[in-house]
Structures are given as structure tokens and as C-alpha cells.
Write a structure and sequence with these properties.
- The protein has 161 residues and is α+β, with helices and mostly antiparallel strands.
- The chain contains six helices and six strands.
- Helices cover 32% and strands 17% of the residues.
- Strand 2 and strand 3 form a beta hairpin.
- It binds zinc ion (ZN).
- The site of zinc ion has 9 residues, from helix 6.
Length: 161
């Protein structure tokens, strides 16, 4: 089963793509695409350059994130109050694996679990409208090198290089 890390080890090109004339939607998507960790709206706000000192309010970022979520380009991580870039045709099948040590979020596409969950919910007469499956644990990197892992309560504030 394929997994995807929301971790980019390639050098950031944020300087060349942070043109203030680029629509906010595209800039937010670019920031999330380059992010090594899930980002909150406030994390994103800190990385958005606005033209000529214009101040952007958090609701603007939330509106863009809602739009990108609806478009299936980003997904919220409820347990982290953060967002990640996704690339799948059916985000409802994603299972997010979130590392408690370093904060990295990886996803796997799973067809079986959502069907079972929906079937169980249906047995209660419950209509599922939104399904977010998040697993907490340790990523492979933190399992093999726990001494270098960052404590989950002190995630670095700068997650974009
Ligand atoms: Zn980790």
C-alpha cells in the first residue's frame, strides 16, 4: 500500500514562488506543498507575504483552507488543528499516520477500513458525512533514532525551509 510523507527534503523555492501577485489560494497551496510538517492556519499566515505591507487576517487563510479542502487538495488533521497537502482522487479513503515525536504526517489509502466503518455506522442508523481517520504513533525515522526526535510538545515553529 503506498504511503506518502508530507515531508519535502528538497530545497525550498519559496523565495521565487512568494510573489505577492500570486493569488492567495496558490500561495497557501504552495506553502503546504513545501511544508515538512502539517501546518496550522497561523503557521501558514506567518509564511504568506502580502503586497506592500498589507496585513492578512486569519479568517482569510481559513477561507482559503476550506476551499482547498473542498477541492480535495489539502486535508485537515483534526488532532493537530493543522492541514496537509494531499494528492488523491478520494481523500475520504486516506488514513493519516501522525508521528507523536517529530510531527510528520504520512497517509495511506485504505479502501477496507472506510467501508467497515461506514457499515458499522450504518448498523446504528448513522449516516456518515465526513470521515477522518488519524493514527498516532512513531514514524520509522523516530523508531530507528529516538534520541534525535523532537518532543511532540515542542515542535519547531519554523517548518518550512
Ligand atoms: Zn517521527
Amino acid at each position: 500500500m503506498p504511503s506518502r510523507r508530507f515531508c519535502s527534503l528538497r530545497p525550498s523555492r519559496s523565495d521565487e514562488l512568494q510573489d505577492p501577485k500570486t493569488p492567495l489560494r496558490d500561495r497557501v497551496l504552495d506553502i503546504l506543498t513545501k511544508a515538512e510538517l502539517p501546518l496550522s492556519a497561523y503557521d501558514i499566515l506567518r509564511h504568506v507575504d502580502m503586497p506592500s505591507g498589507r496585513i492578512l487576517a486569519p479568517p482569510s487563510i481559513y477561507r482559503v483552507l476550506a476551499r482547498l479542502t473542498k477541492e480535495g487538495l489539502v486535508a485537515p488533521l483534526e488532532s493537530r488543528n493543522a492541514f496537509v497537502r494531499i494528492r488523491t482522487k478520494d481523500p475520504s479513503r486516506l488514513v493519516f499516520c501522525i508521528c507523536e515525536q517529530c510531527g510528520i504526517a504520512q497517509s495511506v489509502e485504505n479502501e477496507i477500513s472506510p467501508r467497515l466503518i461506514d457499515k458499522n455506522a450504518d448498523s446504528l442508523g448513522f449516516q456518515v458525512r465526513r470521515r477522518i481517520i488519524e493514527l498516532q504513533g512513531l514514524c520509522s525515522g523516530c523508531q530507528s533514532c529516538p534520541a534525535t526526535a523532537v518532543n511532540s510538545t515542542s515542535l519547531p515553529p519554523q517548518v518550512i525551509k
